[in-house]
Amino acid sequence: MKNPLLTAIAMAVGIVVLAGYFLAVDMLLTLRAILIEWATILVAVALIAGVINLFAVHWRKVTRGSAGGASGSTQIYSLVLVTGLSATLIVGGWLGPTHPYALWIFNNIQLPVETSLMAILAVVLVYAGARLIQRRLNLLTVVFLLTAVVVLLVSGPLFGFDLPGLAELRAWIGRVPAAAGARGVILGVALGIVTTGLRLLAGVDRPYEG
Amino acid sequence: MNLESLLGLALVAAAMVLILGYVAAVRKWEPRALRAIQTFQSLQRAIGLAVEAGNRLHLSLGRGNFLSSQAGVGFAGLSTLDLIARSTSISDKPPISSAGEAALSILAQDTQRGAAHDLGGEFDPARAQLTGVTPFSYAAGAAALLGEDEVGASLLVGSLGSEVALIIEAGERAGSPALGGTDNLSGQAVLYASAHNPLIGEETFASGAYLGAGRLHHASLFAQDVLRWAVILAILAGAILKVAGVL
Amino acid sequence: MDDLACPMCGKANPLDAEVCAHCQARLTPLFAPDSDEQRTGEDEARLATPDDFFPAVEPETYPDLTIELPAPSSDESVLPQEAADEAARGPADLPQWLNWISEASRPDSGKPEQASTASWLEEMRPPYDQTPTRPADSRLERPEAAGPLAGLRGVLSARPEAIRSRKTVVYSDQLKVTANQRAHADLLKELLETEGVPQPAPPRKTIRSEYFLRWGILLVLLLVLLWPALTGVRRAPLPVYQEEAAELNRLVDQLPEKAPVLIGFDYDPGLSAEVEAAAATVIDHLMLRGAYLTLVSTSPTGPLLAERFMRITQAGHSYASGINYVNLGYVPGGSVGLLNFVGSPQRSLPYTLDGTPAWETAGQDGLPPLKGVAAIEDFAMILVLVADPDTARAWVEQLQARLGRLQTLTSLVMVTSAQVEPMILPYYYANPRQVHGIVAGLRGGAAYARLTGRPGQPGRFWDAYGSGLLVSALAILAGGLVSVLLPLIMRPAPGEGEVGG
Predict the structure, then answer these.
(1) Domain ranges in chain A?
(2) How big is the A-C interface in CB pairs under 8 Å?
(3) According to the model, what pLDDT value does residue C102 have?
(4) B184:C389 CB<8 A
(5) Helix (H, G, I), strand (E, B) or coil at C261
(6) Subunits that touch chain C (at least 3 Cβ pairs < 8 angstroms)?
(7) What is the pLDDT, as a whole number, of residue C53?
(8) Does B201 contact chain A (CB < 8 Å)?
(9) Which of A44, A151, A11 is nearest to C472 (CA)?
(10) Which residue of chain C is at minimal alpha-carbon distance from A135?
(11) Which of B174, C68, C258, C492 fits a 20 to 30 Å CA distance from B187?
């Protein structure tokens, strides 16, 4: 269901914003500023729409249960989500985000949960590192693992001592090979973003036409 | 217009010229063969298995903000989602997608709705979900999807940070292998260590060409290759000139 | 005395008996026999055979039943025998045009002449083109010699031994199948029955080594991380500072009192532990200098993290919201929103998080931290707390677009997670410098704490941090070595397991 009008609008807006970045023409700059403001507002509204979708999906799991494809435990998790979302919305929306109750929810529920997930991530990454060679044995993997081990060892106090030279080694790794590799990857990604953007401007990729 | 703006405009113009030139040239010659990438071969196999075994594919679009440079990889993920949705249309279990950004989830719904409509199927909005607005809540929500929805394989194409390890771990527990790529440096390192088949760097943006999206995707790949070599030569030239004392 | 055996029951009877005394069957024929064939008493006793009743007929005198019988006459009184006799005498007075019938019916009329065929056609006749002849069945061709059908060919013999009665064969209605066929049929039946029944997939068994390895890593990490906190032992000295951290320290030291500083809280709750531990000493230093702080975030959870940071980690400074610091809240739109804020902060965020007008305008004074601030370059320092490389890069790029053009004195400094450091260092070493100071990770925060002489949070966590890093590195190294060496150790010796080996 491709609508040429939607495509034309997307292409026109994209070209105006792109041109406004490169060409210092007053009209283009003004148009660009207005369009970007509109986009910023739309993204904020999209957040509301996304949260409503999240609520609807889990509400359906709670109410339909197994008929809707949700197992018993999934129903409970969805119920917890729906309850938490509603409570946070009411407290934060009615009392304000800086109210002690709202801050209590954030400090005692969200923050501990997310930091716990980060802790689990640490274990998962150590485990993945320990099994990496078993999964993929090649020169790149060996270099990857050796670099990770060296950086881990020199980032903290080794056996309670800050050995001389290790700090310089670590600084060199961060400044030279790591930065160089990061730059190279970022340059490649940037080129990919340019070509992807051009496909959008040309109307080849149209994810906005449902 | 300063030098930076001029260079930027020249880069964009060069990319456009290369893309159009490739499209025009391909009419006379056959499109070039693409380098074999294990991830896309595994993806093709995963799509076939999903159709035969009655499983579904899960596509994670990441949490890239649409008003930043992360939008590029987000659009690459949407393009991949469209191709996969059409490829698995004959399956009774269409793919599901998860996103960590609201605009991305809305566009994912639009993409899947369009694919379902074009192929005469029905679309369920629950197939494209916003699973969380922070990275870890998004990862936790996506991991929960893997466990409950008979997912055969997970494809991760988007802006994903180190939290992607949690999604991959959940997939391993559920028996669904993970493959994909991201533009985030931390995410790439984690993908390399955890995923079965990672995509490094700009390989993520080649998904359209490898999945048969069309001539223009091949043209984009060609433009990327040419521009990459141009940048390499420019860096080398600048380094030589710097060492020589010219710059 | 010779007896006469009855042809029916076989019992003996006197020679002169006419009927059998046992079964009343006739023992003598009803017709008078020929004088030559008259039976005398000297005839030997013998079984009466059907020949005794029916005269033997010589083969040459067999009646020719092929003679055409005459058409039935209208006179129905004509007996079939008379018609047969008449037919035997041959037709009489047939019209001339029907003479061919009589000629054809005559026994000696001969067979029709065979038509002659051309020689070439004769040569084409296939060798197998011969009228198949039925092999002569000697039994059928031999005329019957006894019984009422004596003299006829192709009849069933009347002799008792010719027909052997046997018991009727009873055919079973059960299908005869072999054991193998039965097994195949059962299998097919089972397949058809189970086709529509979904078979539950067997639960995937978790590999035991995976399970124990995960739990082992978790328990060891917990132990080494909690040990310093439980025992209170602090042995490791704080690290030496890096150049970029020292530069940041110098810039903060150079700030005048009540200098307006913009702080961007752009990290996620999951990474708050590391970033807050690193940033605590820097913001502590800022507060010691009496700086006015303006808090902003491009992350939805940023404002709440900022409030929490100010109330918990900096509780010792008595900084009050609206007086010493102001929280402007969330800037939506990512990089674009940041660009908007950088271009016009008053227009982008006119109110604080709790709805109070923040900026100085014609009609109002504005809050103390924002007095004299109209644009982004009016801030003395911009400090960004960030845990994501892309977010860090976005701040640098959007700010540099404005600050670099105006060549202001506003310095941009960052407190980042350790994973961001490789991305941001090139901006520090660039010429002109785009990031003027960096504190990266807990190590950077600990080094900064050593500079300021106020250990704070980094000092508390430094020992545990070091132990955790060491255990992680050893676990990865051990896992790699085991993965490489175990297959070599477990590989069977050459020749083991081979046939004949």
Answers:
(1) 136-203
(2) 169
(3) 56
(4) yes
(5) strand
(6) A, B
(7) 52
(8) yes
(9) A151
(10) C483
(11) B174
Hey, is the C-beta of A193 within 8 angstroms of any chain C C-beta? no
A130 CB-near residues (< 8 Å, 6+ apart): C213, C217, C475, C476, C478, C479, C480, C483
Is C476's CB within 8 Å of A145's CB? yes
CA dist., res. C391 & res. C400, Å (int): 14
A34 reaches C (C-beta below 8 A) = no
pTM value is 0.74
A191 contacts B231 by C-beta, under 8 angstroms: yes
Instruction: Verify whether the Cβ–Cβ distance B67 to C335 is below 8 Å.
Output: yes
Do residue C204 and residue B175 have CB atoms under 8 angstroms apart? Answer: yes
Give the Cα separation of A47 and B16 in Å (integer): 33
Mutate to test the interface with A, among C304, C331, C463 (most CBs of A within 10 A): C304
Cβ within 8 Å, pair A97-C300:
no
Residue matched to tokens 């032992």: C233
Regarding predicted confidence, which is higher, C19 or B30?
A: C19
Highest mean pLDDT among A66-75, B37-46, C121-130: B37-46
Domains in chain C, CATH or no CATH each: 1-34+44-70 (no CATH), 211-238+463-491 (no CATH), 243-454 (3.40.50.10160)
How far apart are alpha carbons C60 and C481 in whole angstroms?
Answer: 115
From the options 3.30.1450, 3.40.50, 1.10.10, 3.30.70, give the CATH code of B37-213.
3.40.50
Nearest CB neighbour to C423, from listed B70, B183, B185: B185
- Output the six-digit token pair for B225: 């290759």
What's the DSSP call for residue C200?
A: P
pLDDT tens, C189-248? 888 887 776 666 666 655 566 778 888 899 999 998 888 878 877 777 888 888 999 999
Q: What is the pLDDT of residues A62-99, one digit of tens each?
A: 888 766 566 778 888 899 999 999 999 999 889 888 88
